[in-house]
Description:
By secondary structure, the chain is α/β, with parallel strands linked by helices.
Amino acid sequence: MQRVIIIGGGIIGLSTAYYLSKAGAEVTVLDKGMMDDNCSFGNAGMIVPSHFVPLAAPGMIEQGIRWMFDSKSPFYVRPSLSRDLFLWGYKFMKSATKANVTRAAEPLRDLSLLSRSLYNELAKENGFDFGLKNNGILMLYKTQKAGEEEIHQDEKAKALGLDVEVLSAGQASALQPQLKLDVTGAVHYRCDSHLAPHVLMQQLTAYLEAAGVKISRGNEVIKIDHEQGKITNIHTHTDTFQADEVVIAGGAWSPAITKLAGLNVPVMPGKGYSFMYNEPLERMHIAALLMEARVSVTPMANQIRFGGTMELGPMNNKVNMNRVRGIIEAIPKYFPDLSPAMPEEGKIWHGFRPCSPDGLPYIGRAGKYKNLLVAGGHGMMGLSLGPVTGKLITELITGEKLSIPIDAFSTDRYL
Length: 415
Ligand SMILES: Cc1cc2nc3c(=O)[nH]c(=O)nc-3n(C[C@H](O)[C@H](O)[C@H](O)COP(=O)(O)OP(=O)(O)OC[C@H]3O[C@@H](n4cnc5c(N)ncnc54)[C@H](O)[C@@H]3O)c2cc1C
């Protein structure tokens, strides 16, 4: 039986533990926190084959610079003297090309579609009921400019074989007739889904512990030893572990962990916020993205989770209330029936998206070692891509044939 240590208990680490444990491995998950509030809990819960364009796309830099001067803007690079941010930004700029976007589309589509079907399998297992709904996501727009961009994207999506439909404002309203909608039009990505991520994370943790996976909370990895191309010891403040294979799934903290093994895997935290809103009438059942405002809207039972903003820069836990206000002000512009009050600071969740410079995840073996794998850098799509990442990492460890090619996601691409 193979002994595997997974560093990080977010959706990526836990999905990996799930498939490894099914394959018969002896799995230990080490997490520095209590695994009740990492980035995998408060996100928007969207499963997004629609996101075949990585964050590093032409136009993002100009948009980012314009938005830097707006305190309520949804995308922001926090000016900093950080060397890591500078180096990351340089790589991001080099990646934000049309060629990169074209190259990334099919690999991202294949990852997402497989992940979505794995979520559907998981939802049928005993002990799982995490509100998975396969009724798509509505990209809602108000301005002609955003509409043109969305319709252009829709053509690309159709060329990739995705199930997408352009809707008039009336057709979009008819999907949820009890909820007022004020938009110019919408694109309905029927290929997308949504779920309640905090419920999924709790059920996955309970399932894994019942299946014999050891989960060690409050146990931060601080040192990694290696000898002759092999990881030998994993040290935390109190313990030392050995394993046949080690998986680094540390989310936005991954660069610090990979650095312990002498690797350069660039990831920049992209802070985002979310909060819950009671909607007992349950008028909404399809998740939506408010395109101009970059706000996510996800129904979760008799509540709605609103989310947004991307603040790129070295990690800090400060809640920027101006940006939360930007989210609040956008909502009634699209849904006149919904006007949430400004939440208290303590009720606002924040998390750090693990953003790679080219917008693609890292999934694979680290070439420098015989027994080290990296699963991270999923940025805005980590929840969506959890199961497929876990399955692929498991296939690499067990030596099975890979379900899909992973060349685009090489962990060594910035060495
Ligand atoms: C507002 C917002 C909305 C989002 N919406 C969506 C969405 O709709 N769909 C989607 O697909 N994605 C979404 N995302 C992104 C998604 O949440 C992330 O990509 C995903 O949660 C990352 O998972 P992870 O397992 O890599 O990292 P995390 O969930 O952050 O887990 C990493 C874990 O590693 C642990 N760790 C770190 N360092 C160490 C160490 N040294 N030793 C031990 N443990 C360590 C941490 O404690 C943490 O628990 C959203 C993100 C935000 C912020």
